[in-house]
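Exercise: predict the fold of this chain.
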Amino acid sequence: KRARQALALTGSGNEMADLFGISRFTATQGDGRAFGGKSVGIWPAATNLITNGGCETNATGWTLDGSTIARITTQQKFGSASLEVATSNLSANEGAYHTFAGAASTQYTVSGWVRGASGTVRVALWDAVAGRQASAAVTLTGTWQRITVTATTGAASVAWRAYFETDVQQTITFDVDGAQVQTGAIATPYVETDGGTATRSAARVQIPMAQLRMSGTQGWMAMSCAPGWTTANDPAAMFWAW
């Protein structure tokens, strides 16, 4: 029998993990998983173009759209605050939006966490040429859930927004946290913003060669990886390097 050996992994500092890093423990940003698991989330680099993704300090950057909005500290997915939206039942598509500095003819993924006792809401990418490109609506269940949409902005567009809104006319109150806009087709974990855009570098985990006890001619190792995207959205990134 061969004794099991515990490997001392070395992280780059950008992982969503319990083994190293603090994002899950402090719940300030990340993949939304609860602290206490044994997995390590390794993600590509990302820049959050929404400058106030969690209303940690104020609600600056958010604009009401047929509703009332307010920063609250009684509910949050990340940090200590979130944005509360109360619709007025006057029309469909009531909620709030956040502008961002985008580009024409560019693919973006809009994502965020929403919570409410009842009702249906969605997220949408809006630009001055293509208009609203919305996700399917989700039913609020009293717990935080993430919604995303990926779309390409129109040619020659000069204005861009991320909407969190109802899909039909209704009177509801819902909260928004961890709002993010990033280029590409994958909603990577939330990069915390509080007054400006923010970037997370690509993550990496290394196993020291000395612990593998493998020679240059023989040996074996086994690893598993659960991609956080569909095959259609595969970023063709390098998972393993020797």
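Check your answer against the key: The chain has a mean pLDDT of 87.
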